[in-house]
């Protein structure tokens, strides 16, 4: 028997809220398989199991916030006998009274209201009993099945609605979306939010409105306190790239078209492979190179909130594959469905603020990484080529480096490499 | 069938709400920049073009992107692309 604990999903994470169990007691679990969904203040993350086995007992109910390291469930090896009596190590929080099996009248009533057949619901509570959350999750899944358009493009909860739900203590699983395709909008959340004066149900602990900022504040303060940054920047002529993209995109279906941002990521990944001293972590006063180039891509998910999940093995993805992986990653980040690996593994982060209209971004390194690449907006500028003045699309690319790990010389060579790669787009 | 102004507007609203579910169109000026108003990045915009082309059953090339800048220009593009060619 072993514990499945609340993981640390970032250097500054102290606690997390268990949102959902993806397995029920008695079900087999494979190593690397998602077991639960945890909210880290920045995003909802699927947590994978580190071992093969069987989910034995669930110790923490959905909606509960616990410290990093707290056992969430126990796993037993296949063949090991099941625990007979549920280990009630963690008392059910207020608002989640221990419900007997079979479900009591209030739960049956709630299920009927939501149109959920209790016989069809899989219990995730202690001893496999059906909890209120199970019922609501089943209802949400039913809505979701109807709502997901066949094209798979499905950001179903607007970022604002998600944040509002956190602030008002509303469980999104219980919200019926009235937006297109069943998307949950802010007004849907407000519609079922409790009256301010009444006692707030404790089913979902409300997110402190400022916690997103607190996480960023802690991390960025640490970065500026510990990392002696150096900065280099260059302007890259994108004439070759944009000409090539215009020509090749004409032959691609819209779904397969490549945006310049993807090509810039690809060039960054290839440059990072050539210069591994910028791709990795500063740990215990030494540099540890990354086990591959996993580019952290900064994505805005809620108003003002950013996550930088990893584009796994970006240096091994041909440009069209990288483009697909990028679209998938951004969609999942906004839908709140990232995996633990994606959030913890970036070896080098890229922040592209070109869509926000700025020409240059000089970023702050995400510890324990040792560099950050900033990409600005592609703009048309007068540009001298072979002694003649022309108008060219150009982009400002910067690198913030950790001076403990590398020198400005390495940063300069890195940017020169990015530039060279972008002059031969057909080889990207 | 040529798309009417209302049909074109409804389609644009629908596609943008796929990306920004709580997008408000009531106060949207006809010549307001859609990407800036709804904070669409280049990937969002590609998704918008993809769904617009699919649902209107028309071809939209990158050269056409400037014509998708505002509600008015989107309506113009949609109605001209969906116009029935004159039978000879």
What does this structure look like?
- The complex is a heterodimer of chains A (428) and B (88).
- Chain A is of the alpha+beta class.
- Chain A contains ten helices and 20 strands.
- In chain A, α1 (105-114) runs parallel beside α2 (132-147), α3 (159-168) packs parallel to α4 and α7 (260-274) crosses α8 (319-334).
- Chain A starts with a strand and ends in a 6-residue tail after the last helix.
- By secondary structure, chain B is an all-alpha fold.
- Chain B is built from four helices and no strands.
- Chain B is globular and about 40 Å long.
- The mean pLDDT of chain B is 90.
- Classes of the chains: A alpha+beta (428), B mainly alpha (88).
- The A-B interface holds A 149, 151, 153, 155-158, 160-161, 177, 179-181, 183-187, 246, 249-250, 254-255, 257, 259-261, 326-327, 330, 354-355 and B 14, 17-22, 40-43, 46-47, 49-51, 53-54, 60-63.
The proportion of residues in beta strands of chain A is 15-25%
- Number of DSSP E strands of chain A: 20
Largest sheet of chain A: 7 strands, mixed
Helix content of chain B: 40-55%
Structure summary, number of beta strands of chain B = 0
Helical fraction of chain A equals 25-40%
User: What does the radius of gyration of chain B come to?
Assistant: 13 Å
Q: What is the element layout, followed by pairings?
A:
The complex is a heterodimer of chains A (428) and B (88).
Chain A: E1 2-5, E2 15-21, E3 28-29, E4 34-39, E5 44-48, E6 53-58, E7 65-67, E8 71-76, H1 105-114, H2 132-147, H3 159-168, H4 186-192, H5 211-226, E9 229-237, H6 239-250, H7 260-274, E10 280-283, E11 286-289, E12 295-297, E13 299-302, E14 305-307, E15 310-311, H8 319-334, E16 338-339, H9 340-344, E17 348-352, E18 371-375, E19 379-385, E20 388-402, H10 408-422
Parallel strand pairs in A: 5-16, 12-17, 17-18
Antiparallel strand pairs in A: 1-8, 2-4, 2-7, 3-6, 4-5, 6-8, 9-20, 10-11, 12-15, 13-14, 18-20, 19-20
Helix pairs in contact in A: 1-2, 3-4, 7-8, 7-10
Chain B: H1 5-19, H2 34-37, H3 42-56, H4 71-81
């Amino acid at each position: 028997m072993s514990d499945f604990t609340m993981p640390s999903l970032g250097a500054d994470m102290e606690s997390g809220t268990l949102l959902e169990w993806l397995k029920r007691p008695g079900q087999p679990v494979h190593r690397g398989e998602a077991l639960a969904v945890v909210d880290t203040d920045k995003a909802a993350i699927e947590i994978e199991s580190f071992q093969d086995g069987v989910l034995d007992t669930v110790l923490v109910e959905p909606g509960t916030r616990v410290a990093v390291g707290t056992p969430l469930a126990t796993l037993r090896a296949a063949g090991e006998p099941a625990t007979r009596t549920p280990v009630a190590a963690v008392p059910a929080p207020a608002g989640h009274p221990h419900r007997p099996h079979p479900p009591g009248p209030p739960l049956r009533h709630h299920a009927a209201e939501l149109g959920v057949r209790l016989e069809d619901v899989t219990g995730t509570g202690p001893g496999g009993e059906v909890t209120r959350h199970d019922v609501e999750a089943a209802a949400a899944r039913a809505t979701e099945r109807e709502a997901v358009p066949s094209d798979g493009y499905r950001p179903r909860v607007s970022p604002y609605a998600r944040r509002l739900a956190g602030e008002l203590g509303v469980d999104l699983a219980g919200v019926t979306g009235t937006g297109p395709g069943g998307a949950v909008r802010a007004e849907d959340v407000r519609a079922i939010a409790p009256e301010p004066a009444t006692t707030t149900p404790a089913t979902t602990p409300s997110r402190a409105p400022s916690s997103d900022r607190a996480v960023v504040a802690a991390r960025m303060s640490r970065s500026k306190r510990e990392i002696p940054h150096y900065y280099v920047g260059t302007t890259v002529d994108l004439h070759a790239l944009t000409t090539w993209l215009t020509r090749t995109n004409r032959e691609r279906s819209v779904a397969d078209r490549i945006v310049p941002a993807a090509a810039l990521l690809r060039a960054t990944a290839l440059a990072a492979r050539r210069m591994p001293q910028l791709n990795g972590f500063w740990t215990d006063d030494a540099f540890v190179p990354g086990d591959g180039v996993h580019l952290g891509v900064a994505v805005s998910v809620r108003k003002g909130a950013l996550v930088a999940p990893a584009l796994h093995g970006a240096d091994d993805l041909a440009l069209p594959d990288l483009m697909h992986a990028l679209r998938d990653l951004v969609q999942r980040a906004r839908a709140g469905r990232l995996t633990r690996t994606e959030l913890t593994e970036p070896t080098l982060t890229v922040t592209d603020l070109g869509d926000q209209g700025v020409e240059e971004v000089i970023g702050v390194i995400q510890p324990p990484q040792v560099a950050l690449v900033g990409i600005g907006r592609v703009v048309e500028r007068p540009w001298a080529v072979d002694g003649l003045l022309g108008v060219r699309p150009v982009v400002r690319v910067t690198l913030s480096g950790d001076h403990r790990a590398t020198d400005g010389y390495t940063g300069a060579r890195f940017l020169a490499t990015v530039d060279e790669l972008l002059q031969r787009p057909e080889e990207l | 069938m040529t798309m009417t102004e209302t049909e074109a507007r409804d389609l644009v609203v629908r596609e943008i709400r796929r990306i920004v579910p709580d997008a408000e169109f009531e106060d949207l000026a006809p010549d307001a920049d859609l990407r800036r108003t709804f904070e669409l990045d280049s990937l969002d915009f590609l998704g918008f073009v993809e769904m617009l082309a699919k649902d209107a059953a028309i071809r939209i090339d990158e050269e056409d992107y400037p014509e998708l800048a505002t509600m008015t220009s989107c309506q113009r593009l949609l109605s001209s692309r969906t116009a029935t060619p004159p039978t000879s």
